[in-house]
Write a structure and sequence with these properties.
By secondary structure, this protein is α+β, with helices and mostly antiparallel strands. It folds into two domains: 2-43 and 145-218 and 310-400, FAD/NAD(P)-binding domain (3-Layer(bba) Sandwich); 86-138 and 221-305, D-Amino Acid Oxidase, subunit A, domain 2 (D-Amino Acid Oxidase, Chain A, domain 2, 2-Layer Sandwich). Helices cover 28% and strands 27% of the residues. The strands form three sheets. Strands 5, 6, 7, 13, 14, 15, 16, 17 and 18 form a nine-stranded mixed sheet that branches. β10 (169-175) and β11 form a beta hairpin. α1 (13-24) runs parallel beside α5 (145-158), α1 packs across α8 (349-364) and α5 packs across α9 (383-393). The longest helix has 17 residues, at 60-76. The two termini are 40 Å apart. The protein binds flavin-adenine dinucleotide (FAD). Flavin-adenine dinucleotide (FAD) is lined by residues 9-15, 32-35, 39-42, 45-48, 50, 168-169, 200-204, 208, 223, 259-260, 303-306, 344-347.
Length: 402
């Protein structure tokens, strides 16, 4: 029997952030993942530290969370970031009224939105298309999911958390309306006795909850990322139009990562990966940056968004489901002590974790404040130390490049 106060299931950005938050509050926490750290959606995203501009006119609260975390991570996790900046581009075919709406929504959030003519943008980004009519600058950055996850995990471990990769949760026993023991296989290979179990399994959250007899309605959606040789793009390029396939170009060293699509899938482990999606992303991104069309595809990878979709009516429309996060306490469903945190983004994982840890503390009757916004992550100013941690934890994160 492995005893712990809190068991966190899932070693993506959300799970490691929850473990760090609880450990820094001096709470005994164990984290397990069925795979390597970051092997789920976290290591298979674009790796953009969103400014919030992407969501500004549709969901200003979510956008404000992104902007706040984007600023905060510069203080506590600078070594995980590449300060590329970003732009939203209006092409000849795009609706100018949409550009105005998005720019106004960004200004309302407090972003300094510098507007550039097409020629001014091309002076800064020579690879940008002649079809760009105007653009505005946003404080996007590029984040290394591998570095962010290992730095967070290392801080959790330094504060006393026990972390087990390659240790899948196989069964969750609930008795008398309360979560009882959790069977974990793989390296840990033990029955776990925890007062609270946090389900942070991203697109697998519905499956993990089902082990405890709880329903967490999800609509996972997959997206492809296409890495090509970088034609000289050093900043994040976003197409300024309603969300659609192929509207973002992310520089990552000598590669440019192009994304993405959004297609509902039934099984996050087993879904179609059509070549046509790769071609579509490539040709749409080439509208922003024509040189991309001439570059060979070096590799592709696919990620699955952990979208929480309690409203059955919106499940078929993958693009309309909220990108915000949900924190669910399953006491009313007969599983007290079982909590799910799902949705959100890599950018907002620390904030999601703070809300989750606050809730867990309330359940445990513990009154200790969150410290994750003030404490810098280990290696925050030392990329070499971060890479040593990446090697030590052996993460699985194609988003980090070759
Ligand atoms: C195509 C795409 C692009 C994206 N781009 C961005 C971006 O640029 N910026 C951004 O901020 N966000 C982006 N996102 C969103 C972001 O990547 C995710 O919201 C975030 O990474 C989810 O992290 P998570 O920890 O909740 O889930 P995950 O990273 O999926 O972690 C869940 C973990 O649970 C583990 N697990 C599952 N079942 C079990 C079990 N039974 N036992 C033990 N462990 C288990 C898995 O192995 C996995 O490691 C993108 C998402 C997609 C799909």
């Amino acid at each position: 029997m492995h005893e712990t106060t809190v068991l966190v299931v899932g070693g993506g950005a959300t799970g490691v952030s929850v473990a760090r938050d609880l450990a820094l509050r001096d709470i005994d926490v164990t984290l397990v993942d069925r795979d390597a750290l970051a092997a789920g959606t976290t290591g298979r995203s674009h790796g953009v530290l969103h400014s919030g501009a992407r969501y500004a006119e549709r969901d200003p609260d979510d956008a404000a969370d992104c902007l706040a975390e984007n600023r905060l991570l510069r203080d506590i996790a600078a070594g995980c970031l590449d300060e590329t900046g970003g732009y939203f581009l209006q092409l000849a075919a795009d609706d100018p009224a949409y550009f105005e709406r998005k720019r106004a929504a960004c200004a309302d959030l407090g972003m300094a939105v510098e507007t550039l003519s097409g020629d001014e943008l091309r002076e800064r980004v020579p690879a940008a298309s002649p079809a760009v009519e105007r653009a505005f600058a946003v404080p996007d950055a590029v984040v290394s999911p591998a570095r962010l996850v290992v730095a967070t995990a290392a801080d959790a471990r330094d504060a006393g958390a026990r972390l087990y990769a390659h240790s899948p949760v196989e069964a969750i026993d609930v008795s008398g309306g309360h979560v009882d023991t959790v069977a974990v296989g793989g390296r840990l290979d033990a029955m776990v006795d925890a007062e609270v179990v946090v389900n942070a399994t991203g697109p697998w959250a519905e499956r993990c909850a089902a082990l405890a007899g709880v329903d967490v309605p999800m609509q996972p959606t997959c997206g492809v990322m296409v890495a090509v040789e970088n034609p000289g793009v050093g900043t994040v390029l976003n197409r300024c139009r309603p969300p659609a396939d192929g509207d973002i170009v992310v520089p990552r060293g000598d590669e440019a990562v192009l994304g993405t699509t959004s297609v509902a899938v039934d099984d996050p482990d087993d879904f179609e990966r059509p070549r046509a999606a790769v071609e579509r992303v490539l040709s749409e991104c080439a509208a922003m940056c024509p040189a991309l069309a001439e570059r060979a595809v070096e590799r592709t990878y696919w990620g699955v968004r952990p979208l929480y979709a309690p409203d059955e009516a919106v499940r078929g429309d993958a693009r309309s489901i909220s990108r915000g996060f949900a924190l669910l306490d399953h006491a009313d469903a007969g599983a007290a002590g079982f909590v799910t945190v799902v949705g959100g983004k890599l950018t907002t994982a620390r904030k999601m974790a703070a809300a989750t840890a606050d809730h867990v503390c309330e359940r445990l009757g513990i009154d200790r404040a969150c410290r994750t916004a003030e404490e810098p992550l280990p290696g925050a100013d030392d990329p070499a130390r971060l890479d040593a941690l990446v090697a030590e934890f052996t993460v699985d994160a194609p988003a980090d490049g070759r």
